[in-house]
Amino acid sequence: MKLLEIWERIGxxxxxxxxxxxxxxxxxxxxxxxxxxxxxxxxxxxxxxELKEQVEWINKxxxxxxxxxxxxxxxxxxxxxxxxxxxxxxxDFVIGKDSCDGxxxxxxxxxWKYQED
Length: 117
What we know:
It is a single chain. By secondary structure, this protein is mainly beta. The chain has helices at 3-11, 15-20; strands spanning 24-27, 30-40, 43-51, 58-59, 70-74, 79-85, 90-95, 100-104, 109-114. The strands form two sheets. The chain has a six-stranded antiparallel sheet, with no helix packed on it. The longest helix has 9 residues, at 3-11.
């Protein structure tokens, strides 16, 4: 498959989906998450990927991309979905059928990872 064909197909998806979804590659029964693009002398040559099961939790001192859906974990290991780093604070969101409300999170966050739907 050519890059242009991938781009054209992704471009038909709603932005709401493409902003929240990780790019996954299926090889046999295994799933890989694309984590980077590799270049050679400025030219695209391919993607770097890691096994989806091996996605590691990231320390809260390293902040995620702003306004990106993440899962956070507290000191007891409990996971909380629908969080975002807004550039100045962690926010927790409740997503309803026709609404999305957010407020500063009261979770004692120790780590995070990007949320996949």
